[in-house]
């Protein structure tokens, strides 16, 4: 009896690859199934720490909301950026920030002001725009939103 005579492969390479291709196709979801899965909302935290960037930030926020009305945006103002959220605050041309904050807030943008900055600069909470939430720490809030809640980070 010759044992070496029956050691041939029983399946051709082509049939094995064909089998693997069919198995993969059956285990992969279809395009329709993928499209049916709802995508999570896009969430972005904007970091504002310099009031001189406020107008550019406002334009970016307006464009962002216009491009994606379902986006969830939080603006965290700390340091000099807090001036954007203060009553009576104006840009370099004398335009008040309050109507800009009002419009963005009406579009769903949330604003948060750093309590540490307010304390350090001796600014009373009553001076902060009513649509803004005062938080303990702007830096901690940005980190929390990024790493615990999955927000993308953007610093204009």
- Mean pLDDT, as a whole number? 87
Spatial strand order of the main sheet? 4-3-2-1-5
Unreliable runs: none
The percentage helix is 25-40%
The helix/strand series, from N terminus to C terminus, equals: HHEHEHEHEHE
- Counting helices, strands and paired strands, the structural category is alpha/beta
The whole-angstrom Rg is 28 Å
Net shape: elongated
Binned strand content: 15-25%
Cα-to-Cα separation, first versus last residue: 81 Å
Count, helices: 6
Largest sheet: 5 strands, parallel
Count of DSSP strands: 5
Describe the model.
This protein has about 160 residues and is of the alpha/beta class. Helix content is about 40%, strand content about 15%. It contains six helices and five strands; from the N terminus they run ααβαβαβαβαβ. Strands 4-3-2-1-5 form a five-stranded parallel sheet, with helices on both faces. It is elongated and about 85 Å long. The protein starts with 12 loop residues before the first helix and ends with a strand.
Feature tags:
156 residues, alpha/beta, five-stranded parallel sheet, 6 helices, 15% strand, elongated
